[in-house]
């Protein structure tokens, strides 16, 4: 109900031109690159959280650490914050080595998952906490707090008590409290995970715009691949304490480095490749022609077929691969229709935009075609 | 039995409990204002017994002893108990079972056992070294030992109720270890500390048994004085002291409760 102050939604769409924002000049100057080399971290005897992570994050980049729980993404973020020390490896931010620098001496701030607003302080004092600890005089603190409150459009939230805030409001205060310190790097630990879906997608867009306006380096942790794709310049997918792939959202989604990344990015249509031969591969769902550059010497691996690239219909365009299948299930989603097809005894998912074409029914036999360009070979 | 009869019975039981709890106190307070020198009949309102108190040097010194003992022991117990409470919080993931039992043992130990062993201990140390002469000093030590567990428990439960990431947020926002204590931990647990102080104060003012065994000739507290005085019979003066103590303890207990409520928010 009171999740949003009036300015909350209304102002979301009009982005203040970058030049007019007071924080802009300070912060672009501060954007720092991050260099991680050979990070290892173990908890207890058996739990390996990070198993040799090398990573370069560019200055001013919106960088996301994506992975399932226990993949090491949070440990990596905590090492960046200084809340955890790596067993081995080095961390450089803006050219300075920070590996053993305690958190209170790093120009790095965190937006915590639980927001961690101090209950004994007012919103204003929460916002001013970092500045106060850095020894900034009260008058300057007030000015900075007002500036950030204006910048993030907090409105009258500043004068409220922490226990009067809703989840979305707390999230914004936590963000403002970190940003007001003008850190070299801002770390965000699943800051949207506690919010409901609507507010969440709204804040995703807002956060991403904010980062572009500030030009600050953001490192964002999430387990939600949709969130990662919407917001990030680049994504690192982690599993088992190792980086599986680093790349732009489209790289990671369209050309996953391995089967884990493919599955984690939401791809269900992965089919074992039995044999390669020239441009052709023998798979669970039949013989398929690939582009020459997709061919490898090794015959193992997976064929990734994105559901949205499959075309259902009697005509098969020139050069396309052709399959015969049966519609087993149909989900009508309004703007699109999802089909669960059976091809060669395998389940194949297909998604068609609802453009007024014929909608197939359960039990229909359909001809499926796919362009060789859309087929991707994924390592095991 | 019908529901209504059960309800009536329970209500009656409630009033009976209140009757035995508070009527004796009310009688004491009432007779402290009695103008006659009698504990049997009330003949008129007067403040003569309160006036008499002010002229009684023994009572005044006992009152002073009680206050010094309560304030000093509460402050010392607050500092030590606070450190223990924080230590228990910091190491809560380790197996501390036996240590916790050791800290809480004084709470369940009979006062008389505790008092006698403290006395024997102090006397032996005094005979061996000349230190710890029975008096206010030994009483303060004894009181601190039984106040500490209460303080530690209150502080510990306050810390446990906090979001653990708050400690990390303070670090992340440039607070040095010293500033973390000053600007985060102490302000956050302040209501718990105030509540613990008043609880300790109340425990100290109330205590007779442990005080009795650890006191010296010069350090009688109000309860010790009262105990000595009523051996000669209950005088209206005693009623006046008792009334004042009831008032003081009630205020301290209410303050403790108010501040422990406030920490919920």
Task: State the main characteristics.
heterodimer, A: 380 residues, alpha+beta, Rossmann fold, OB fold (Dihydrolipoamide Acetyltransferase, E2P), 2 domains, 6-stranded mixed sheet, 5-stranded antiparallel sheet, 20 strands, B: 265 residues, mainly alpha, MetI-like fold, 11 helices, globular
3D architecture notes:
The complex is a heterodimer of chains A (380) and B (265). Chain A is an alpha+beta fold and 380 residues long. Chain A has ten helices and 20 strands. In chain A, strands 6-7-8-3-9-10 form a six-stranded mixed sheet, with helices on both faces. Chain A has a five-stranded antiparallel sheet with strand order 13-12-11-14-20. Chain B is mostly helical. Chain B contains eleven helices and no strands. In chain B, helix 2 crosses helix 11, helix 4 crosses helix 6 and helix 6 packs across helix 8.
Strand order, main sheet of chain A: write it out: 6-7-8-3-9-10
Number of helices of chain B: 11
Count of folded domains of chain A? 2
**DSSP strand count of chain B:** 0
Distance between the termini of chain A: 48 Å
Low-confidence stretches of chain B: none
Helix content estimate of chain B? over 70%
Please give the domain count of chain B.
1
Q: What is the N-to-C order of secondary-structure elements of chain B (H for helix, E for strand)?
A: HHHHHHHHHHH
Kindly name the structural category of chain A.
alpha+beta
In terms of topology, how is this protein built?
The complex is a heterodimer of chains A (380) and B (265).
Chain A: H1 6-10, H2 22-30, E1 34-43, E2 47-57, E3 62-66, H3 73-81, E4 88-93, E5 96-97, E6 108-111, H4 123-133, H5 138-151, H6 167-179, E7 185-189, H7 197-214, E8 217-222, H8 225-231, E9 234-239, E10 242-247, H9 249-254, H10 259-264, E11 270-277, E12 280-283, E13 286-289, E14 302-305, E15 311-312, E16 321-332, E17 336-343, E18 346-353, E19 365-370, E20 375-378
Parallel strand pairs in A: 3-8, 3-9, 6-7, 7-8
Antiparallel strand pairs in A: 1-2, 1-4, 4-5, 9-10, 11-12, 11-14, 12-13, 14-20, 15-19, 16-17, 16-19, 17-18
Helix pairs in contact in A: 4-5, 4-6
Chain B: H1 3-32, H2 48-55, H3 57-90, H4 97-108, H5 111-129, H6 136-160, H7 165-172, H8 177-206, H9 209-214, H10 222-230, H11 236-262
Helix pairs in contact in B: 1-11, 2-11, 3-6, 3-8, 3-10, 4-6, 6-8, 8-11
């Amino acid at each position: 109900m009171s999740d949003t102050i009036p300015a909350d939604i209304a102002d979301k769409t009009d982005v203040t031109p970058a030049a007019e924002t007071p924080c802009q000049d300070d912060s672009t100057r501060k954007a720092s690159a991050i260099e991680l080399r050979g990070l290892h971290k173990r908890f207890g005897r058996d739990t390996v959280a990070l198993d040799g992570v090398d990573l370069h994050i560019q200055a001013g980049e919106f960088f996301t650490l994506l992975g399932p729980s226990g993949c090491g993404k949070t440990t990596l973020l905590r090492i960046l914050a200084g809340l955890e020390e790596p067993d081995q490896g080095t961390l450089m931010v803006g050219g300075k080595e920070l590996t053993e620098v305690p958190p209170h001496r790093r120009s790095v701030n965190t937006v915590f998952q639980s927001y961690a607003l101090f209950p004994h302080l007012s919103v204003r004092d929460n916002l001013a906490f970092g500045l106060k600890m850095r020894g900034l005089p009260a008058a300057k603190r007030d000015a900075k707090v007002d500036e950030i409150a204006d910048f993030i459009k907090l409105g009258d939230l500043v004068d409220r008590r922490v226990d009067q805030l809703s989840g979305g409001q707390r999230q914004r205060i936590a963000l403002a409290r970190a940003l007001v310190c003008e850190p070299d790097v801002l770390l965000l630990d699943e800051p949207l995970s506690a919010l409901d879906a609507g507010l969440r997608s709204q804040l995703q867009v807002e956060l991403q715009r904010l980062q572009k306006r500030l030009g600050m380096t953001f490192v964002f942790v999430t387990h939600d691949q949709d969130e990662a794709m919407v917001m990030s310049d680049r994504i690192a997918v982690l599993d088992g304490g190792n980086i599986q792939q680093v790349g732009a959202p489209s790289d990671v989604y369209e050309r996953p480095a391995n089967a884990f990344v493919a599955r984690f990015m939401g791809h269900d249509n992965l089919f074992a490749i039995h044999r390669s031969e020239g441009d052709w591969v023998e798979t669970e769902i039949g013989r398929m022609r690939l582009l020459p550059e997709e061919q490898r010497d090794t015959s193992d691996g997976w064929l990734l077929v994105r559901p949205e690239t499959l075309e259902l219909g009697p005509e098969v365009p020139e050069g396309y691969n052709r399959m015969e299948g049966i519609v087993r299930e149909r989900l009508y989603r309004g703007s699109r229709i999802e089909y669960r097809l059976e091809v060669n005894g395998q389940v194949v998912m297909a998604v068609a935009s609802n453009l007024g074409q014929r909608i197939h029914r359960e039990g229909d036999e359909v001809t499926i075609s796919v362009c060789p360009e859309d087929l991707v070979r994924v390592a095991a | 039995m019908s529901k209504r009869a059960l309800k009536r019975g329970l209500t009656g039981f409630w009033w009976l409990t209140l009757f035995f709890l508070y009527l004796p106190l009310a009688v004491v307070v009432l007779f402290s204002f009695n103008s006659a020198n009698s504990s049997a009949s009330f003949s008129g309102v007067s403040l003569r017994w309160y006036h008499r108190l002010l002229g009684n040097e023994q009572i005044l010194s006992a009152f002073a002893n009680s206050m010094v003992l309560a304030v000093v022991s509460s402050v010392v117990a607050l500092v030590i108990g606070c450190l223990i409470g924080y230590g228990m919080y910091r190491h809560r993931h380790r197996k501390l079972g036996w240590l916790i039992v050791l800290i809480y043992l004084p709470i369940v130990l009979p006062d008389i056992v505790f008092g006698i062993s403290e006395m024997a201990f102090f006397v032996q140390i005094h005979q061996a070294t000349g230190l710890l002469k029975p008096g206010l000093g030994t009483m303060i030590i004894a009181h601190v030992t039984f106040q500490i567990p209460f303080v530690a428990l209150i502080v510990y439960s306050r810390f446990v109720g906090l979001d653990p990431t708050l400690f990390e947020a303070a670090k992340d926002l440039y607070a040095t270890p010293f500033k973390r204590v000053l600007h985060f931990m102490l302000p956050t647990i302040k209501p718990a500390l105030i509540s613990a102080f008043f609880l300790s104060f109340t425990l100290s003012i109330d205590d007779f048994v442990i005080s009795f065994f650890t006191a010296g000739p010069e350090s009688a507290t109000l309860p010790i004085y009262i105990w000595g005085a009523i051996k000669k019979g209950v005088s209206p003066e005693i009623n006046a002291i008792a009334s004042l103590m009831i008032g003081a303890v009630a205020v301290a207990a209410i303050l403790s409760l108010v501040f422990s409520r406030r920490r919920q928010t």
